[in-house]
Design a protein that fits this description.
binds flavin mononucleotide; alpha/beta; Rossmann fold; 8 helices
């Protein structure tokens, strides 16, 4: 089986999952920004792989870098295409469905399989725009009375002061098993 893992990562959580997945599958690994530049990693080269995996972090429910990956989908008809989204939110029931609905049309949904993997949050490593956006969110959460904040919001507020990392190698097991399974 010939597989490739392409990823976009701002603070390293998606990168960590991409590396683990590539290691388990013996797959090639490529950062998306190098994807179109490097020889052999152009979208037209993707049909040479049996399994194509794209990973990006969640930003206001959108999967980062996905717009650049989507044009490859028609050429990958009949191949196994996996997308994994990495967010700070817990992997609750309904989260993958929500991410799927927000990022893919029904037609696109029939071409891919989505997995949600919990990453973490590292405010200090964010770029200026992201820092600004997350500061707005922090103010919004802080404006709410303490007893009105959800457990997720309390956890999120605490994570601004020091990074939190929820990545676990076992989180990739289902994805890896699906990638290895015969279609
Ligand atoms: C502007 C912004 C928006 C975010 N929106 C979400 C979100 O909607 N859902 C979520 O679970 N995490 C959200 N996050 C958290 C990131 O997805 C999380 O930190 C992820 O692990 C980052 O992965 P990376 O280091 O590979 O970029 C957001 C982070 C930023 C900076």
């Amino acid at each position: 089986m010939k597989a490739i893992v392409i990823y976009t990562s701002t603070t390293g959580f998606t990168k960590k999952y991409a590396e683990w997945i590539a290691a388990d599958l013996g797959a090639e690994l490529a950062e998306a920004r190098d994807f179109s530049k490097a020889k052999g990693l152009r979208p037209e080269a993707l049909p040479a792989y049996d399994v194509v995996i794209y990973g990006g972090s969640l930003h206001a429910i959108g999967i980062r870098g996905l717009a650049k990956f989507k044009p490859s989908l028609p050429a990958l008809a009949g191949k196994k295409v996996i997308v994994f989204a990495v967010g700070a939110a817990p992997d609750r029931k309904g989260v993958p469905e929500e991410v799927l609905a927000a990022n893919f049309s029904p037609e696109e949904r029939s071409r891919i399989r989505l997995f949600y993997l919990r990453g973490g949050f590292d405010y200090a490593k964010l770029g200026l725009v992201d820092k600004f956006l997350m500061t707005l969110l922090k103010l919004k959460m802080k404006n709410r009375r303490e007893d009105e904040r959800s457990p997720d919001e309390r956890g999120m507020l605490a994570s601004y002061a020091r990074p939190v990392d929820f990545t676990k190698r076992a989180n990739i097991d289902e994805l890896v098993a699906y990638a290895k399974a015969e279609i």
